[in-house]
């Protein structure tokens, strides 16, 4: 579990091999520079929190993109951080993501495929969240693939 939607999630993914797609990495955006590493079977783990930025360079890194030389300096600094910069606590994870192996169904309104476990009932129909009104986007008038014939257009 990573507690920010910033680049910390990328670092955790790269260093642990956990991914959101496999449901082994979860991102809860509390805006905190904290990560929780726990076992899925026992739900016991550790939560690591950055208590304070140890230098101006680390503070700058959290707020902006660094230049190449700054990144090299930052790498050296991060590898030698003192324990007082972090708080580490043992935790039990209450909620764990399970990989959804559910059935794929077709939305009875738009026809798009989605997981049956995510279906919303609307006027007796099984519809996707977007068709239920929980859409995060607004469709444009013309579909980008409308009228496209992949076999013809790839020649």
Describe this structure in words.
The protein starts with 7 loop residues before the first helix and ends with a helix. The chain is extended, with a radius of gyration of 22 Å. By secondary structure, it is an alpha+beta fold. It has a 3-stranded antiparallel β-sheet, with no helix packed on it. 21% of the residues lie in helices and 20% in strands. The longest helix has 12 residues, at 68-79. Strand 6 and strand 7 form a beta hairpin. The protein has 2 domains: 8-92, no CATH class; 100-137, Wheat Germ Agglutinin (Isolectin 2), domain 1, CATH 3.30.60.
Compile the SSE list and pairings.
Elements (H helix, E strand, L loop, with lengths): L7 H9 L17 E5 L5 E7 L5 H8 L4 H12 L6 E7 L11 E3 L6 E3 L4 E3 L2 E3 L22 H4 L2
Antiparallel strand pairs: 1-2, 2-3, 4-5, 6-7
Q: What's the helix-strand series?
A: HEEHHEEEEEH
Total beta strand runs: 7
Number of H/I helices:
4
Helix/strand class = alpha+beta
End-to-end gap? 46 Å
Strands side by side in the biggest sheet: 1-2-3
Helix content: 10-25%
| Count of domain modules | 2
Shape: extended
Sequence stretches where pLDDT stays below 50 over 5 or more residues: none
Over the alpha carbons, how many angstroms does the gyration radius reach?
22 Å
Assembly type of the chains comes to single chain
> Please, what is the average pLDDT?
83
- Give the DSSP E fraction (strand runs of 2 or more residues): 15-25%
Largest sheet: 3 strands, antiparallel
